[in-house]
Design a protein that fits this description.
about 300 residues, Rossmann fold, five-stranded parallel sheet, 13 helices, globular
Length: about 300
C-alpha cells in the first residue's frame, strides 16, 4: 500500500528538491557521475511510487549516465528510465544547468541511513516504497532479442557477473578460479553465460557474453533463469526483474569502497545494499579458498533448478 507520510518540503535533500523546482521538474535524479550505476538504479523505485502518489506521469531532471567505468559505444543516455510509463518527460541537466546538478549528485551522501538505500531515498520524499526493489521496463523487441541471443543454450540458463567495482581482486580465487569451478560442477545441470564489459579480462570466464550495452544486459538477465554475481549494478537489475539470485559481497573491498565516502557507512553496508529476500553471501578474508561458499552456491542453484523442471 502506497503511503506518503513526510512533506516533500521537509529538510531532506534540499538541493535536489530546489533544483527540481527551479527547472519545473518533479524530481531531480543523480546520474552517478564518478560512482557506480547502482546509485542511479535505486532511484527508479522513487520515480514509480512518487508518480503513483501524484496519480500522473512525472517529469525528472537528470543527466546522461556517467559512471566511473565510462560508457560503451551506442549506450543509451538514460538506460534505466527507458519505456517507464511513470516518466512523462526527461530534462537533460547538462543542457540547462550543469553546475547546479553537481549538488544533486553529491547530496545522495547526506541521506538518512535508517534502512535499505531505496527506503532511505523514498523516505526523503515521504514515500513508503510499495516493494523493496528497483523498477525497469523492457520492450517486446528487447525481450525477443535476448531470447534469440540465448536460444542455442540449453535451459536452465544461469547468468553470471563476476565483475563489479567491489568484486574480488586478482589474488582471490573468486576473481576467476572459483567461478570456473562453479560452472564445471553444474555443467550437467545448467548452461551458463556471463555479462559484463568485454575489456574486463581479469573476469573473463570464457563464456558467451552477447551483450554490449546496458539495455542488452537488462534483457539478457530477464531471459535467464537464475543470476549469480557480486554486489553491483547487474545485481540490482536482477532484483528489479524479480530473478532468483545469489548476491556475493566481498566484504573487505565493500568496506574499503564505502569508507571512501563516509567511514560511518561501513557498519551498515549489508543493511543498506543487500535485499533481504535475495540470497546474500559474504566473502571474508578467511573464506578466500571459497570451498564452503562454493558448495553453498551449488546447493542453492541446484535447488532452484529443480523447481524449474527443465530437462537438458
Amino acid at each position: 500500500m502506497l503511503q506518503k507520510n513526510v512533506s516533500v518540503e521537509s529538510g531532506l535533500l534540499p538541493l535536489s528538491k530546489s533544483y527540481a523546482r527551479k527547472h519545473n521538474a518533479d524530481l531531480a535524479i543523480p546520474n552517478c557521475a564518478g560512482s557506480g550505476l547502482g546509485n542511479v538504479l535505486v532511484y527508479t523505485r522513487l520515480i514509480d511510487d512518487y508518480a503513483m502518489s501524484l496519480g500522473r506521469p512525472i517529469s525528472i531532471i537528470t543527466a546522461p549516465i556517467s559512471p566511473k567505468v565510462g560508457v560503451v559505444p551506442n549506450e543509451s543516455p538514460y538506460p534505466f528510465f527507458e519505456n517507464n510509463p511513470f516518466i512523462g518527460k526527461i530534462i537533460n541537466a547538462d543542457e540547462v544547468d550543469q553546475e547546479g546538478f553537481i549538488g544533486v549528485n553529491s547530496e545522495e551522501l547526506s541521506l538518512v541511513q535508517l534502512s535499505h538505500v531505496i527506503e532511505n531515498i523514498c523516505f526523503a520524499y515521504g514515500i513508503r516504497p510499495r516493494v523493496l526493489r528497483p523498477s525497469l521496463y523492457l520492450t517486446k523487441t528487447e525481450k525477443a532479442w535476448a531470447l534469440r541471443a540465448l536460444q542455442h543454450l540449453p535451459r536452465p540458463l544461469v547468468c553470471l557477473h563476476p565483475g563489479g567495482t567491489t568484486s574480488s581482486p586478482g589474488n582471490c580465487p573468486w576473481n576467476v578460479q572459483n567461478w570456473l569451478k562453479l560452472t564445471e560442477i553444474l555443467q550437467d545441470r545448467a548452461s551458463f553465460f556471463q555479462i559484463g564489459r568485454k575489456n574486463s579480462v581479469d573476469q573473463d570466464l570464457g563464456l558467451e557474453n552477447p551483450g554490449r550495452t546496458l539495455r542488452e544486459a537488462i534483457a539478457l538477465i530477464w531471459a535467464s533463469d537464475f543470476y549469480i554475481g557480486f554486489d553491483s549494478c547487474p545485481m540490482h537489475i536482477a532484483t528489479a526483474l524479480n530473478k532468483d539470485l545469489i548476491s556475493i559481497f566481498h566484504m573487505e573491498n565493500k568496506y574499503t569502497y564505502e569508507a571512501k565516502y563516509k567511514k560511518v557507512f561501513v557498519p551498515s553496508v549489508m543493511l543498506r545494499w543487500a535485499y533481504p529476500f535475495n540470497t546474500n553471501l559474504a566473502i571474508m578474508p578467511d573464506d578466500y579458498d571459497g570451498e564452503k561458499l562454493l558448495l553453498r552456491i551449488v546447493d542453492k542453484v541446484s535447488s532452484s533448478i529443480k523447481k524449474l523442471k527443465y530437462e537438458i
